[in-house]
Design goal:
The chain has 124 residues and is an alpha+beta fold. It has helices spanning 32-39, 42-53, 71-84, 102-108, 112-118; strands at 60-61, 87-92, 95-100. The radius of gyration is 14 Å and the shape is globular.
Amino acid sequence: MATTARPVIRVLPAPPGLPEPLPEPAVEDLRLETIFGALSGPLRLEIVRRLLLEREEFDHPCGWFGFDRPKSSLTHHFKALREAGVLRQRQYGLERRSEVRIDDLNTRFPGLLDLIASSSESGR
């Protein structure tokens, strides 16, 4: 039986001088059902998958994804992912940039990010 290679999650070092993250749940407060709820939409799942596999910088603004959606809609999706504990967001002037909480999620739910990274493209 042939096995397929698992996608490689891109982990980039944090640059110096990052702004403080916006409010987010502590690692011990992350709940699987809340995370599953946040990931249940195909667009949100695609946001996380792309940040895991295609990131070019430490964190990205919502415009990096190139989704043809209103900014207010995208803001709502990013906020839902942050409040569930999936994403970490920082404010850079007028721009919010996002990254997946890789270490926190791997600590709390081992294998979850590998599953997300292995999912097929959706939500575009």
